[in-house]
Amino acid sequence: MVFTIGKIFSLLLLVAASSTLSVFGQRPAHPEWSDREFAPVLDAFGPRDDLIDQSYRLPTDTIPTHYTIQLHTDLHTGNRAFRGLVDVHFDVVVPTDAITLHNRGLIIVSAALFTKEDDGLLVEAGFPHHELDARTEQLTFHPGRVLPIGSYLLTIEYTGLLETSSNSGFFLKSYVNDDGVRRYVGTTQFESTNARMAFPCYDEPLLKATYTLWITHSGEYNAVSNMPVEDIVPAADHDGYVTTKFGTTPKMSTYLLAFGVSDFVAIEDGQQQVYARPNAIHEAEFALEAGVKVLNALNAYTDVSYYDYMPKLSQMAIPDRGSGAMENWGLVKYGEPALLFNPARNTYRTRKGIAVVIAHELAHQWFGDLVGPHWWSYIWLNEGFANLYGYIGADLAYPSERYWDLYAVENVQNAFGPDATDSTRPMTQDATTPSAIAGLFDSIAYDKSGSVLNMFRTVLGDDNFRAGLKVYLLDRQLDGAVADDLYAGLQAAIDGTDVLPAGVTVKQLMDSWTTEPGYPVLNVRRNYDDGSVILSQERFYADKRTPTEHVWYIPYSFATGSKPSFDDLAHFRWLATKAERVETGVAADDWIIFNKQQTGYYRVNYDAHNWAKIAAALRTDVSAIHRFNRAQLINDAFNLARANRLDMAQALDLLRYLSGEQEYVPWAAANGVLNYFFNKLRGTASYHDFIVYVDALIGPVFESFGDISTVPEDETLLEKYLKQLISTWACRVGYTECLRQTTEALHAAVETNTPVHPDVSYVVYCYGLKGATDDEYRWLFNQMISSRNEAERAVLIDALGCAQDQSQLVSLLTVAIGSNSELESLLPSERSRIVSSIYSAGRFGVEALIAALSDPLIAQEFVNRFGQGTLNSVVSNVASRTNNAGELQQLEQFLAALGDLISVETAAAAVRTVKTNEAWFQTYEGVLSTTYFADFAN
């Protein structure tokens, strides 16, 4: 269908014609912020890789001891300029004629150097000149003489600008209050190398110091920082301004300093506070409750009290910051969707996400704040622990929710993908440039490291692990740590026990996992005559088999059909060689399963006969095998088959038991398998056969739900997860009952102007839109645009992309592109989300994008709004969703219509993607899979 500008404009007016659109005014353009940034290095200040440019590291002849920082800001007016004065107290440990610290983007006005006498008196030592190395961001002051060993003070006056194009350093956000007035928020994000954007400093994690902070700001605003406010006084020479003075911090890294200036208000419980904009503070109650519960749980778990070091804990919700968070000691910052929860508007997923992210950030108060990494090489000592204790802490605080059930499918299995490639890195990895350091904050630092730590927590025993962590935390408190410090703490806790084999150390075992990339597959080949098995290990690659010399120390245990001891995690053996024959005593007619509860960070493969026995056991009695192992078996079997280590037919046969599966976790693993084949087969001759297979799996489970558009009061968290997953598949493949219920629920919501329960909102709205009228579509759009809750807006944007009326989708795209004043409440990240929601929801959206962007005027406006990179991404996503000859022709016509707006390389890559999709059907995996589905359907 061809859309004229007039048609699109009229549809835009239809969507936008609502008084609710004028609630928000213009927001500054900020690209979405991606959670955090991290990285590593080595030497006296950490392990160094000589192949990496070490010139980015600071000289080691001076070290900081204390900073006194005074800032003046007019941000309440939207003014980006700020002024600063920092007193840097430092020691010269090696005589030097240069003082080098970091600076990014700050203008140095003046500097003065003082010598500290033994009696504490300061003696002026001159006005050093300075120079900046823009490449390394090193700011060097030259005093004009060699400074002997001793203590000094360097006072630096400077100016800077609050960031508006990135969520880093000292940056500016805003929101619109209930009177329609824009209010500004000044906030910080210093990890990993951004403190230097707010004040000149020694911006390396080991160079810890104490901090005293004063901020001068409008009297209508307030300031918050790591420490409590000690005093608020009128600002001299600035009518209407006050200076907020904070207490001195403990010794900590520069990246953990934080502050905020805003008109926010707080709710409080004891020594904890949550800050948010006044028109959202009513959504902060759960965050405060969770903060108190989680901190109490982690205090008890670590046996090291947070309040022995910090007098308070504040959490702060920042508008338009994305969904990330940052663990600044005593002042944890979050994007609003990661902290604010409204039970009338937000889903169970939002609540779960908030509980886990709060626990993640509060775990950092010990792992990262109390004890930090020696250098970014060891960022896994921060992020691995926070990843693991995010789930454990949330589970301890809310045991009935069973958050721990989600750990393996959301972390272990998530890490397996990127860690199965040639390009993956080890957990301990050096980096020195800001961009390379930022690159270390990846799945390896989070998911893999948390998974490996959990493996050793299980093997050593939780009590021993906790005792070892206490030794580690107290030994390294207020200082930096390397991996060996952790190992020493754990070793101290188990010395004198028989937890590990004689002569084997924690360091030996853990080094085999932390210093090498990748992970192993444990091959189990049974001898059914004598009950023995041959165990062997090799590195698992997703796409090849390559011999490696490395040997992992693999802890293993197993359960059998006659002894399904899945809950016994107290006894392990070790595979410390490439291969070994072991006695199991398992009868020939028994199945055997290794890696109980998937606590080990490795895959397991069996001989075909044992796989068949496992599949048969699952079909006979689902409960005979632990739910975590059911998820493991599904994920392992599919990925082993994709790597040509297992027959794909056997993997698909295994999944057939799912028709009797009522637990979410195995279904979450299966969801990835089904999505893989859906994306391959949609729009092809094999699609019908695949749907027959899906129907056989989901049908009985879907029928057990009854009404999917309402939420029973006693429905558990994992039941909510399961219902959304299954009903999404049921509606996607065209179940009449699923589509009837969602359509009727949307009709009722529109007629009564009453939104559906948030826990079913996505499924109801997404599939209820299948035949929705323009009035219904406009109603849902208005629900989104009038909401002031970012998490709710995100869900509604995703649902709006599900429409199957091309004119509705094109009008939504035009909203994302457009600049009507009524639509300026859309955040830049929300505009981008609209685009991705359209192509992600199905082929209808892909064709709507093609139809709209084939118009040169709209395509140019798209590039003007989003940039060339986003258009390239759209082309790539259209190509990846192109599965047949007719769709390929549409793609080719689309590429021709775009013309010079995309490069020849982008167009060629899109066509290659389609050819690769086509070629899959002639691969062994493709032929085997389509044959399996055909045989199943017939």
From TrEMBL:
It is found in: Cell membrane. The active site is at residue 361. One of its GO terms (molecular function) is metalloaminopeptidase activity. The keyword Transferase does not apply. It catalyses: Release of an N-terminal amino acid, Xaa-|-Yaa- from a peptide, amide or arylamide. Xaa is preferably Ala, but may be most amino acids including Pro (slow action). When a terminal hydrophobic residue is followed by a prolyl residue, the two may be released as an intact Xaa-Pro dipeptide. Residues 591-900 form the ERAP1-like C-terminal domain. Residues 286-513 form the Peptidase M1 membrane alanine aminopeptidase domain. Zn(2+) binds at residues 360, 364, 383. Gene3D superfamilies: 1.25.50.20, 2.60.40.1910, Neutral Protease Domain 2, tricorn interacting facor f3 domain. Keywords: Aminopeptidase, Cell membrane, Disulfide bond, Glycoprotein, GPI-anchor, Hydrolase, Lipoprotein, Membrane, Metal-binding, Metalloprotease, Protease, Signal, Zinc. It comes from the Eukaryota. Its EC number is 3.4.11.-. Its cofactor is Zn(2+). InterPro entries: Aminopeptidase_N-like_N, Aminopeptidase_N-like_N_sf, ERAP1-like_C_dom, M1_APN-typ, Peptidase_M1, Peptidase_M1_aminopeptidases, Peptidase_M1_dom, Peptidase_M4/M1_CTD_sf. Residues 64-256 form the Aminopeptidase N-like N-terminal domain. GO terms for biological process: peptide catabolic process; proteolysis. Residues 1-25 form the signal peptide. The record marks 446 as: Transition state stabilizer. It is a lipid-anchor; GPI-anchor. It holds the Pfam family ERAP1_C. One of its GO terms (cellular component) is plasma membrane. It is an enzyme of class 3 (hydrolase). Coiled coil: none annotated. Belongs to the peptidase M1 family. This is Aminopeptidase. The lineage of its organism: Eukaryota, Metazoa, Ecdysozoa, Arthropoda, Hexapoda.
